[in-house]
Protein 1
Amino acid sequence: MENYKQILLAVDFYEQGEAVANRAKDMAERYQAKLGLIHVVDSLPITEANYGADIPFNMDLTTELLAGAKERLVKLAASLDVPEDRQWLEMGSPKTEIIRVAKEHNVDLIVVGSHGRHGLGLLLGSTANGVLHHAECDVLAVRLQDE
Ligand code: AMP
């Protein structure tokens, strides 16, 4: 079994991100692997496709979201010693973008946080679950404590 070489930490900045980040950093150190970071600005709620042509794509809001996300990503990257060329800020579906970036950059381990969701909560969609089932590489799901 080969050691991991490229680890990708997916961050959503909502909650308990520190525990997930610490786990990813620890794994990178153990395996002497390169650590990368990805955050996806979920574009779905503000696209025309969801609400029809009456609600146009809001460029100002998107720019603002991206700027805020970039700031947080850069700050987290600095605390984890992740260089700029391994920081990815994407727009779209988090699951799809995480899997795409992982594939394009030969990532061999994706680290995500995971809630203990089941039943309807799971059916309604979880990024962690989507990544786990569709990624071509290993996925480490770090358990988040449910409130
Ligand atoms: P969820 O399944 O949506 O509760 O999210 C679980 C985990 O998926 C988070 O802890 C992150 O690791 C990852 N994740 C969720 N949303 C995003 C996002 N927008 N960008 C990057 N990673 C995300």
Protein 2
Amino acid sequence: MEKSLMTELYCRAYDASARAYAPYSRFPVGAALLLPDGSIMTGVNVENRSYGLTNCAERTAVFAAVAAGYRTFQAIAIATPAAAAPTGPCGGCRQVLSEFAPPETPVIFGASPDNLVETTIGELYPFDSLHELGR
Ligand code: THU
């Protein structure tokens, strides 16, 4: 994936994080998916006073993309501006990401554009034995 495209995707995730609903953790997260037609779908974490009903930014973005008619994505960026160090997606989100994009799909995350981690869905979620069931 071209570096400028990943940087732009990260900037969209960062901008989205300002719209997070995170009054309980005060840890806003933004996610941005690059879709096959070149458009970008963003998502934010949406917390709840029950805590357990919280939806992560990554899943918000994936579910919004599916609701808009997409079934895959080409890359994802995740911005966690309040974090002291780059924060990767939670285990549940890793599995959801793996449902809709292949292992080589780029993932980029970090608290700021000058300290980003670049990896792939396959690195974050290896040994995906159930993957074939959904195909
Ligand atoms: N969170 C995300 O939205 N994505 C991540 O990758 C890590 C955690 C949210 C969940 C909760 O609202 C807050 O961050 C603190 O865990």
